[in-house]
Amino acid sequence: QEGRKVPSKRKENTSIVTSDLLHKNLLKSEQKNWSNISPTYKAMTERIKEKLEELHSMYTLNSRSPRMRFGENVYFEENGCIFLAKAGDGEGNAEILFSVEDLGFSDAFIQRIRISPGQRYMAISLKSENSEEATCIIVKLGNLPVVEKVIPSVFSFEWAANDVLYYTTQKNLKCQNVFMTTFTYQKHTKLVYTEQDARFFVDLYCTKDRHFLTINSNSKTTSEVWLVDCRRPFESPALVQARTTGVIYHIEHRKDQLYILTTYGEPAEYKAILTDNYIHRINLDAYCRSYRNIASSGKENWQLVYALENKTKLVDFEMFSDDCIMFLKNAGHLYLNVISFVSYSVQSIKLPTWACEFELESHPEHTTSTCYFQLSSPVHPPKRFAYSFKENNLIEQAVQEVPIITNCHTTRLLAKSKDETLVPITVFHNKNSKELHRRPLLVHVYGAYGIDLNMSFKEEKLMLIEEGWILAYCHVRGGGEQGLSWHRDGCQQNKLKGLHDLRACITLLHQLGFSQPKHTALAAASAGGVLAGALCNTDPALIRAMVLQAPFIDVLNTMMKTHLPLTIEEQEEWGNPLEDEKCLKYIKSYCPYQNIKPQCYPSVFITAYENDERVPLPGILQYVQKLRKAALDHASRTSKKGNWIPNIILDVQANGSHCDSSWEHSLNEVWSITGCRDV
After folding, report:
1. How many separate helices (H) and strands (E) can be counted in the chain?
2. Which of 222, 229, 476, 571 has its CA 20 to 30 Å from the CA of residue 196?
3. How would you classify residue 405: left for phi > 0, otherwise alpha for psi between -120 and 50, otherwise beta?
4. Tally of structural domains, the chain
5. End of a domain among 253, 275, 309?
6. 455 and 443 share a domain?
7. What are phi and psi of 558, to 5 degrees?
8. Strands 441-444 and 201-206: what pairing?
9. How far is it, in rounded angstroms, from Cα 282 to Cα 272?
10. What is the Cα–Cα distance from 420 to 425, expressed in whole angstroms?
11. For residues 118 and 115, what is the distance between their CA atoms, to the nearest angstrom?
């Protein structure tokens, strides 16, 4: 209408432009600061690099990638090349099928491999270190492998039949669509399933006997599974059990029965469930087609087979024709539980005390009589073991050229938290170290999403042990080390319990003579930055340095921004401050960014990534600026002679994605730890 005022977005746009300009200026300032500081440590960097390269080459040459056996054929990947060998023929005679470079992806690494049941096709995902998304390439195998299809932005994929592939696509860190593509003479692709709830993430899995492909839609606390019959891959997926808030479940299949791992029932920890007579076969016509009726697979018909003990973590689960293996963790120790479907017995085997991590090897043939896996720790390289179902025992494989570290001592402790809860700690140190209270201590923490601290082997950890460091891993609440309840006790309105746990762990270590505050550094990555940053605010005197990688340190502002890709999904972990005033105040009480104040802070070294989609760089830039200002304000207000001003350094990597695990990062991590110690 004439005379109507036109609304203007000038102020809104001006605000966005001003904010972007501010962040660019902050980034330039931090990059200049880093370029001025890094040459100071050139000699130390060269020494560390030389030592790490030596260790890296030693253990990389003796590492063994997973083998995939299909009948007499064995497939494996080494240095970006796909090999094919004959079983029992020795890998020295293996032939190279193709390499990553052959496919035109020289800067990428192979993330996942899936081979079609008839071995006619191989699907692989390639991922670069600068991106969260992978590209799926389908290769037709033969004398001269041929690229059949290239699918961008793929997360997971599985073969439903010889020439039918299901896959999920990833966009803005979310997977919500499932597609089916065929490689028959009538090639086509169609959408099979779409998840409408932004809190849920969809992935695919193929049951061990390859009878079913499962479409798994999971949030942080709830799940729903749809089944695709691999004998009829073009039929619509069938629902197993409609999602029920707070109930997680996963599906396996054996001899016409579903085996379900679920949190349904009390206590809310994982249990093995069997569904009774879930398949009813009916002759419909002359072709004797079968019809699946899985209505009786609903939770009202679930029968308990096995329940985990209290405070036990289910690490992994593997189904075989007559047995099931569960990899468990209890009070820091690893166990192997073998459930026999023939004798209806359970055998529990305690694994070596030094072991901290499992890694199952691929077993495409569920009828195999042996289960292979690797054990490792931060300072023990992977060692291969096997469990024989026939012999009913654990077999340690041939001694590797690189021996297990013998001069490293592993200690497990329990710290009493504020509410009397006992919190596990795993400690490593050199057996020959004397006067441990004078040795530098590196404390690790995570405590979020029900995920365990990463305790796989890393050359830089071994180097620190050889340099006389003590390594401590604090398994605080919020993580998953003691089961699902351990996570629940440390998320949302319980997040402060994780902080209390961390404080108790560090205090106990010092009381027992493992270093002292002036020689202690705290390390965390991603969401572990919440507890590390919170401790830095509440108890800065407990540590001398803090090392963070892509840290999540502004919980409140992040959870208020629903346009960010993970905000809605992560409300189950942190809460929803937009709709809950109590939640807002609680997050504000521990959020690292919100609680910075003028005081004597430890030195801080942060590694961030320009293109990080999970933890945006602007928040980290603002955190560093605010922290540095608070430390300087404190120093200017106190006239104490010899007043110590911490070094607060940010290294922004132009390449790499969230929590990059590349070789270059190993060098940066040891540099930052030893560099902070020297401040």
Report:
1. 11, 35
2. 229
3. beta
4. 4
5. 309
6. yes
7. -65, -45
8. unpaired
9. 29
10. 15
11. 8
CA gap 317, 335 in Å, rounded: 12
CA gap 499, 508 in Å, rounded: 14
DSSP β-ladder status, 648-653 and 603-609: parallel
Tokens of 92: 């020295």
Q: Looking at residue 364, what is its pLDDT?
A: 60
Backbone angles phi, psi at 556, to 5 degrees: -65, -55
Domain-embedded: residue 194 = yes
Which pair of structure tokens corresponds to residue 409? 């001592």
- Residue 601: which CATH number? 3.40.50.1820
- One domain for residues 211 and 319: no
488 domain residue, yes or no: yes
- Is the pLDDT at 282 greater than 80? The verdict is no
Rounded mean pLDDT, 445-462: 93
Residue after which a domain boundary falls, among 404, 430, 456: 404
How many angstroms from the chain centroid is the CA of residue 566? 16
Q: Are 586 and 493 in contact (CB under 8 A)?
A: yes
Site of tokens 């990463």: 454
The CATH number of whichever domain residue 172 belongs to comes to 2.130.10.120
**Exposure letters 144-154 (e unless 16+ CB within 10 A, then b):** ebeebbebeeb
Residues 6+ apart with CB under 8 A from 638: none
Indicate the pLDDT class of residue 465, thresholds 50, 70 and 90: very high
| CA–CA distance, 582 with 593 (Å, rounded to integer) | 19
369 or 597, which is more confident? Answer: 597
pLDDT tier for residue 553 given thresholds of 50, 70 and 90: very high
* 332 part of a folded domain: yes
| Cα 288 to Cα 490: distance, rounded to the nearest angstrom | 54
Peptide bond into 237 cis (omega under 30): no
Q: Is the C-alpha dihedral spanning 411, 415, 421, 423 positive or negative?
A: negative
Other residues' Cβ atoms within 10 Å of the Cβ of residue 110: 21
What single-letter DSSP state applies at residue 659?
T
Give the rounded percent of residues in the chain with a pLDDT score beyond 70.
86
Phi/psi for 655 (5° steps) reads -110, 175
* Distance in angstroms (rounded) separating the CA atoms of residues 124 and 129: 16
- Segment 298-302 long-range contacts (CB within 8 Å, at least 24 positions apart): 298/240, 298/241, 299/241, 299/244, 299/247, 299/262, 299/264, 301/275, 301/276, 302/260, 302/262, 302/264, 302/273, 302/274, 302/275
- For 555, phi then psi, to 5°, come to -60, -45
Q: Please tell me the distance from the alpha carbon of residue 338 to that of residue 112, in angstroms, as a whole number.
A: 27
Could you read off the pLDDT of 168-204 as tens digits, one per residue? 999 988 999 999 999 987 789 999 999 999 999 999 9
DSSP-assigned beta bridge partners for residue 323: 340
pTM for this one? 0.88
Q: Both 495 and 633 in a single domain?
A: no
Active-site annotation, residues: 526, 612, 658
The pairs formed by 400-404 with CB atoms below 8 angstroms and a separation of 24 or more are 400/62, 401/62, 402/58, 402/59, 402/62, 404/354, 404/380
**595: closest CA among 538, 529, 522, 526?**
538
Which domain does 471 fall in, by range?
Answer: 406-515
Q: What is the pLDDT of residue 87?
A: 80
Task: Name which residue leads in pLDDT, 291 or 155.
Answer: 155
- 266 and 327 inside one domain: no
Q: Are residues 608 and 506 in the same domain?
A: no
Backbone angles phi, psi at 325, to 5 degrees: -115, 130
Asked if residue 304 and residue 214 are part of one domain, the reply reads: yes
